[in-house]
Amino acid sequence: EEFKTYELLETHKRMLIDGKPYMCDVCGDEFTQCDLLKGHKSIHMGEKLYNCDVCDEKFTYHRNLTRHKRIHDGEKPYKCDVCSSSFYRED
Question: What transmembrane ranges does the database entry give (predicted)?
Answer without folding.
Answer: none
